[in-house]
Amino acid sequence: MIGKIAWSLGKHVSTVACGTTHVRRFLRGAYVRIQPSVQEALMEGRPVVALESTIITHGMAYPQNLSMARDVEEIVTKNGAVPATVGILRGQIHIGLTDEELEFLASSKNVTKVSRRDLPFVLSQGLSGGTTVSGTMIAAHKAGIRVFVTGGIGGVHRGGENSLDVSADLTELGRTPVAVVSAGVKSILDIGRTLEYLETQGVCVAAFGESREFPAFFSRQSGFQAPYQVRDEEEAAQLIASALGLGMSSGVLIAVPCPKERAASGQVIEEAIQQALSEARSKGITGKELTPFMLRRLSELTDGKSLDSNLALIQNNARVGSGIAVALSKLQKARRKGNLPRREDTTPPQPGGGQTNAGGVRRTFGGVGRNLADCLSRLGQTPLFLSAVGKDEHSESVLHYCHHMDMSAILQLEAKNTATYCAVITSAGELSVGLGDMDIHHQITEQYVSQFKENLCQAPLVCIDGNVPLSTIQYVCQLAREHQIAVCYEPTDENKASKPFLSDSWKALTYISPNLQELRAINRTLGNPLPAELPTRLEDVVQTAVALACPLLLHLHCVVVTLGALGILLCGKRLGGSISLCPGPHEQAAAASLCATHYPAVHISREEIVNVSGAGDSLMAGILAGILAKHDTDTCVRMGLLAASLSLRSYEPVSPEISTSSVSQEQVKSRSWPEAKVWKMH
Prior knowledge:
Blueprint: E1 32-34, H1 36-43, E2 48-51, H2 54-59, H3 64-78, E3 82-89, E4 92-95, H4 99-107, E5 112-114, H5 119-124, E6 129-131, H6 133-143, E7 147-149, H7 160-163, H8 168-175, E8 179-182, H9 191-200, E9 204-208, E10 228-230, H10 233-245, E11 252-255, H11 266-283, H12 290-301, H13 305-338, H14 368-378, E12 387-390, H15 393-401, E13 410-413, E14 420-425, E15 431-437, H16 446-450, H17 453-458, E16 461-465, H18 470-483, E17 486-490, E18 511-512, H19 516-526, H20 538-549, E19 558-562, E20 568-575, E21 578-579, H21 586-591, E22 593-599, H22 615-628, H23 633-648, H24 665-670, E23 677-680
Parallel strand pairs: 1-4, 2-3, 2-7, 5-6, 7-8, 8-11, 9-10, 9-11, 12-13, 16-17, 17-18, 18-19
Antiparallel strand pairs: 3-4, 3-6, 14-15, 19-20, 20-21, 20-22, 22-23
Helix pairs in contact: 3-4, 3-13, 6-8, 10-13, 11-12, 14-22, 19-20, 22-23
């Protein structure tokens, strides 16, 4: 927040920069809601585990089903992944459920069991239901979730050679590239024919652990061998990565045996199955009602032993599946880094070989949000900085260095690390290698920020960066919409740029300041047309930036596209001969035409540049300081360019030389500037 309060969050120690990761475009539309924590994890390439909900709605009685669902989600979280329970609520697919939504599904008595065939009808009628393996696989695949944990999959029913009763789970595994972690198939099924059917469908099946024995849900032995075996989570991840790398349309089944100490006796279970099947035939129970009936009767006939095994295998699958998801995420990240296109001769040699490499070592204090608040403080504003730090030696240094800023809203946490970033910077000031510890960002929750609601609502401007959790960004945007607060969003990097654009939250923003890569990522998320590749020639760069900024200006007031050494492109509504930086009356804005103005950067020789990491933040802070001082558009932009040029010459991300005298309206007017060029937008 700026003026009375500047709010944003970023890394605190050292410089800021980040690699890019390809992010799958998420499923969007009226039929789907992806929980913010799941959206954020997918966008950042963190491991996510899909969980089904039929076991909640049809597998167990309330409240045991709710307790089981909570336990499984907690197991996934403790093992380093993000749980995404999939369910249908009032005609909408929910990928990731709140605790209230879990309880709704667990306690509802008339909800539908939703497989592939049921999805269109259930959604069209606004119904609620639990998703089966096939229904969950569809949602997981569309959202980009690679690993799905369940209890056991469906299969060929006993007598299926006559009844043709074959679960849709098997055909889904044959056409949807999701890895399913289960305790094999339910022992009430024909396991041999199920394995044959999976082979026909082209599904790679592997037993997990020390044996190739294919598990039979409640029991560890089925009498059948799995085609393949993976001994641990890393081998399973390698298998899944190979299937994904080949672009195969079929899934992978990882069969995990129930823990030995809680597995049921095969003979006891088989006798109970035969009795339950006989009862089902006499009562005419078939189709989707058969499995819930069988599981319920098995629990009764085995005095709860089958239910105990059921709970144990589900929890064990969650542990194994989340471990596989974590291993797969690490593997994919490593491969992406290894496959980055090589630059030409300008790429510096990478440190390696275990030797010590000569160089200078400096500690600086950065982070996008901190940089903005720092620069604004030096430019005469009084921002209140909201962030989180650990109670460690780094936080003491941060608070001491930032004594000129209002740090009273900083959250200090025990047993947490202050966000740090170790960057290897080349002699040209460019990032070569970076390593970051940023987990504390997730502590800047909606609940914490809501403590400062009064400050937020009274501020003339709010600044927020892409490092904060998605749910917090959405909270701030909702507050801005309700109280007509101007909001500036700094995307941070290509991987986080799209956070507000995963929902309608972005329409509450006033300003954004992306570079060209971040602007392209935003348009990808919105489903807008994209250029095949990004140009380098100035005229082509400007035309591409104009095309990408144009659809955003239907709701945003201004898009500041940072172009590095090429300067900036200011895109917005033209009023009185120039782009207006201050939002005006709606009717006036509606009548304004769109245009873009290119401002060349302040010329700095290559020898003068020592660090590029904070220049963009200084640029935006200079522009915002000008807006708050109510200067004209040209003055605001050139104040930003002056601030950026000073930071480029400084080892600190925000130059200590920035002040109200070095970056001011008077300084702007005393200098000669290259001509800014206006481009039309259509």
